[in-house]
Amino acid sequence: MQLLIDVMGWAGTILYLIAYALISLKKVEGDSNLYQGINILAGLLLITNSFYWRAYPSSALNLAWIGIAVFTLGRKYAVQK
Q1: Cα 5 vs. chain centroid, distance in angstroms?
Q2: Alpha carbon separation from 80 to 15, 32, 38 (Å, rounded)
Q3: 77, exposed or middle or buried, with CB in 10 Å at 0-12, 13-18, 19+?
Q4: Which of 7, 26, 29, 72 has the fewest CB atoms in 10 Å of its CB?
């Protein structure tokens, strides 16, 4: 179980780095589905890892990160209607 949790944490970290690289290289827009989707998935993986290891401040940070991504996507779709 610990190995799975660690793999999830590393996968989340790598996804955050990929998202940051994509935005920094101007390959995606900040409100794109891809960028925000990667952030949501990365956050979920890291919340699982952080919560398992009782790193609650990291869990809270990732929850906030997911909240920002969900808010951004919600605002994007609300404006389109």
Answers
A1: 16
A2: 27, 13, 21
A3: exposed
A4: 26
**3-state SS assignment for residue 11:** helix
**pLDDT digits over 10-66, tens only?**
999 999 999 999 999 999 999 999 999 999 999 999 999 999 999 999 999 999 999
Q: How many residues does the chain have?
A: 81
Tell me the C-alpha distance between 63 and 2, whole Å.
Answer: 21
Q: Which residue reads 């994509």 in tokens?
A: 22
Q: What are the start-end ranges of the H helices in 25-55? A: 33-52
pTM of the model: 0.93
Going by C-beta distance under 8 Å and a sequence separation of 6 or more, which residues neighbour residue 13? Answer: 42, 46
